[in-house]
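User: My advisor asked me to double-check a structure prediction for Glycosyltransferase before group meeting. I don't want to rely on an old file, so could you generate it fresh from this sequence?
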Amino acid sequence: MFITICVIAYNEEQTLPAILKDIAAQDYAHGSMEVVLVDSASTDHTKKIMQEFAAQNTTQPDMGFVSVSVLDNPKRTLPCGWNVALKAYRGEAILKVDAHASIPKDFVTKNVAVLESGEDVCGGQRPNIIEQPTPFRNTLLLAESSMFGSSIAPYRNNPGKSYVKSMFHAAYRRKVFETIGGFDERLARTEDNEIHYRMRKAGFKLCFDPEIISYQHIRPDLGKMLKQKYANGYWIGLTTGVCAPCLSLYHFVPFAFVMAIILSVLFCTGFAIAGSITALSGAALVIFKVIAGLTGLMWVLYGLLAVIMALAAVIGAPEIRNKTCLALPFLFLMLHVSYGTGTVIGLIKMPFWAKGIKNGRN
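Assistant: Sure, here is a fresh prediction for Glycosyltransferase from the sequence you gave:
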């Protein structure tokens, strides 16, 4: 099978050389592979690194790809970059790889094997890894890798060989995009959810094979991780105005948690202020006590679950256990609040954003 492997990058001069090295090391016949690299108007040396890699393909016989193309994505966002690639690639299938990823040498071979078994879309596990580990970075890795800290997405948690709703690094036969069209360029973060939803609606199955493994580099510090979580939650909120059915219930769990915090604080504060002005009536006092009790119960249950999941994460990874792991329950809280707050803001802005799209302003 002639296959295209594609990487889209924006300002990834630090991570891009590693993933390009992994692509060059693939054990799949390079004479049956093309590489498509898309630069999303980077302001660093990303495009230069891509161009140097393309030039090496003609000067180093051991690379020997059919071609290495460097394309421009002036619109910068990931879905726009994918549409640039989809218009240019020549393979029987296209395999997407993130610029923050690492892939073993048999990654392409295993994807092709699943496609040639009769599947149209396939992918596999995507464990998290971290660059230049330190004790606290290892704790961040545990937080991000935990089901409680991230999500129950199959590529994170390996349900065994099965058909799933969405994937991360995945391979698609050409007929898939010929049938459903390209990526929705309105969605900067949830484009995978939306396009996989359209694939399922069109009758395509997404085959998860645990034998296929790739790795994703997580954000190396807490600030960047919280910023990423906020942005992910924000786009969940916006996406409800474009394609709500492509989202799952678990996407809104942090939103529900944050709303519970906000509403409980507002109710309790309101009742407390009212009580300081005039005595609360019997019914109002009962309501106040019920809300206060439910709020306390929510925090107790959340705290217990956070501690249990932190212990599970630490027990499951004894090789990176360290003193900073004591912060895991608090890291879980910060990640959930950041994501949930993003969703709240996204939902508030969604009507105005959707109206701007309709009027051609976005």
